[in-house]
Structure formats: C-alpha cells, structure tokens
Amino acid sequence: QVQLVESGGGLVQAGGSLRLSCAASGRTFNNYRMGWFRQAPGKEREFVAAIRWSGGSAYYGESVKGRFTLSTDNAKNTLYLQMDSLKPEDTAVYYCAAKSPEAYDYLYWGQGTQVTVSS
Predict the structure, then answer these.
(1) CA distance 36 to 84
(2) What is the CA angle 48-77-19, rounded to 5?
(3) pLDDT, tens digit, 9 for 90 and up, residues 79-95
(4) Where are the beta strands (DSSP E) in 14-111?
(5) Handedness of CA 6, 8, 13, 17 (dihedral sign)
(6) Could you count the other beta carbons within 10 Å of the beta carbon of residue 12?
(7) Spatial separation of the C-alpha atoms in residues 39 and 22, rounded to whole Å
(8) How far apart, in Å, are the Cα atoms of 45 and each of 53, 80, 90?
(9) pLDDT value of residue 36
(10) Which tens digits make up the pLDDT trace of 26-72?
C-alpha cells in the first residue's frame, strides 16, 4: 500500500526557511511524478512543484519559482521541498502527491503538513 508521509511544517517568520519532507513507501516509485501542492483556507489547491523520481528537472509554480527547491533522496525514498524567503501568502497545508506514468492525475496523497508564515 502506497504511503506518503509529510513532515517539517511549522511556524516561521516572513523571510525565514523551512524544509518539508515526504517519505514514500509501499512500492517502487521509478518513473512516478512526485509533487507538492498546497491549500490555504478558503482557496483552491495550488500546484507548488513536481519532479520525476527517476531524474530530470523540477518545475515550479509561478508563485514559488526562485524561492523553493525540490529534491529527492532515492536511497531514503524521500522527497524534499526547501522553502526560502517565505511570505505570509505561503501559509497553507502542504501535501505530497504521487502520479504513476499511466495515470491521468495524482492518485496518492499524504495527510498534509501545516506551514504558517507570520508577518
């Protein structure tokens, strides 16, 4: 059974940094696309960043480009999201997700981790 477990959220001041982790288990994720999404209260879910687990460049949503960095540690089966220069508008629940090559959309989701950025 696929499990995605996020960690690393918390409260940080504007301009600060946080690193989110997503530990993936339950299958081999080669060729899966792994992504981060976020959802703030009263807003729709927003794409943050994604990368193919087997390699390649990461791509980012416009609102985080240049501030967030996505990386993987294949040995640990873990996905990371380094978030720098955080802004209050980055406040949201952040979700890790996985999409198989044949799937139309992301099928596997973590439970989410809260990120709160104070001004």
Answers:
(1) 15
(2) 45
(3) 999 999 999 999 999 99
(4) 18-25, 33-39, 46-52, 59-60, 68-73, 78-83, 92-99, 108-109
(5) negative
(6) 17
(7) 17
(8) 22, 19, 12
(9) 98
(10) 988 888 999 999 999 999 999 999 999 887 889 999 999 999 999 99
